[in-house]
Automatic annotation (TrEMBL):
Keyword tags: ATP-binding, Cytoplasm, Fatty acid biosynthesis, Fatty acid metabolism, Ligase, Lipid biosynthesis, Lipid metabolism, Metal-binding, Nucleotide-binding, Transferase, Zinc, Zinc-finger
Pathway connected to this protein: Lipid metabolism; malonyl-CoA biosynthesis; malonyl-CoA from acetyl-CoA: step 1/1
Gene Ontology, cellular component aspect: acetyl-CoA carboxylase complex
Cofactor(s) the record lists: Zn(2+)
A matching Pfam family: Carboxyl_trans
Protein name: Acetyl-coenzyme A carboxylase carboxyl transferase subunit beta
SUPFAM superfamilies reported for this sequence: ClpP/crotonase
ZnF locations on chain (C4-type): 21-43
Organism expressing this protein natively: Aquifex aeolicus
One BP term from GO: fatty acid biosynthetic process
Record EC number: 2.1.3.15
Binding site for Zn(2+): C21, C24, C40, C43
Length: 287
């Protein structure tokens, strides 16, 4: 083969066919990586995935219904930094292919009816603004009314600065909303993915009845460098990783992505569907 022919063939290779693992630096065939739930087969690194991919690998393909999509972001403060907030929202929507940092779906996990919320870090860093808070609030109220388990996947850098106090108050609003589920005995499960930081970690992310995380996920409030500069001390190795939090008792488990769907099925069975059957059997057995 002539050198010219080699480079001409190289130009014909489709873009995105290969993906480099940021952890082990292995060059991975993208279709195989996709089939492996976007987890590196060499080192187990969990790639960040978008909201719609998360929905596809979590919910059964049938009977999915998006919820609360009618609630759209606005710009009540008419905020502008280097560019208007409305422009940032438009750019984020075009980049991420979603209309906000959280999506909710009603669907099934192995035929168990649930509501799933998925955050997308590609939309302004998964930041929590008034729409994220309102959609979460309505999801909790909806699940309490319909008696459906709620599962939320978190991925966020924190509160959305462009919405100022309107963003900050969502921490209280989302925390309050979880109370709807507690009052009705409806299970609420959170899955912390990389990264889960700031106001999201300090509110609804850590209020689940069951709190699990993906391997290697970075979870905390302030960043490690900010903490080190504040306390003037070196932080321990692995600080703010899912494994570190599990060791310290802050989360219940670290679950590989390929096992998450089965794990969630078992949890909604144990906390809700089988529990209802057990309670009914116990009532029927009462003399």
């Amino acid at each position: 083969m002539k050198l010219f022919d080699f480079f001409r063939r190289k130009k014909n290779i489709p873009e995105g066919l290969w993906t480099k693992c940021p952890s082990c630096k292995e060059l991975l065939y993208t279709p195989d990586l996709k089939d492996n739930f976007w987890v590196c087969p060499e080192c187990g690194y969990h790639f960040r995935i978008d909201a719609k991919t998360r929905v596809d690998i979590t919910l059964d393909p049938e009977n999915r219904k998006p919820l609360f999509g009618e609630i759209k972001p606005t710009d009540p403060l008419m905020f502008e930094d280097l560019k208007p907030y409305t422009k940032r929202l438009e750019e984020a929507k075009n980049k991420s292919k979603v209309d906000e940092a959280i999506l909710f779906y009603k669907g099934e996990i192995y035929k168990r009816l649930v509501v799933v919320g998925v955050m997308d870090f590609n939309f302004i860093g998964g930041s929590m603004g008034s729409v994220v808070g309102e959609r979460f609030f309505r999801a909790c109220r909806y699940c309490a009314q319909k008696e459906l388990p709620l599962i939320v996947f978190t991925a966020s850098g924190g509160a959305r600065m462009q919405e100022s106090i309107l963003s900050l108050m969502q921490m209280a609003k989302t925390s309050l909303a979880v109370g709807f589920l507690r009052e009705k005995g409806i299970p609420y499960i959170t899955v912390l993915t990389d990264p889960t930081m700031g106001g999201v970690s300090a509110s609804f992310a850590f209020l689940g009845d069951i709190i699990v995380a993906e391997p290697g996920a970075r979870i905390g409030f302030a960043g490690a460098r900010v903490i080190e500069q504040t306390i003037k001390q070196k932080l321990p190795k692995g600080f703010q990783t899912a494994e570190f939090l599990l060791e310290k008792g802050l989360i219940d488990n670290v679950i590989h992505r390929k096992d998450l769907k089965n794990f969630l099925k078992d949890m909604v069975d144990m906390l809700f569907y089988k529990a209802k059957e057990w309670n009914l059997d116990r009532l029927n057995a009462t003399p």
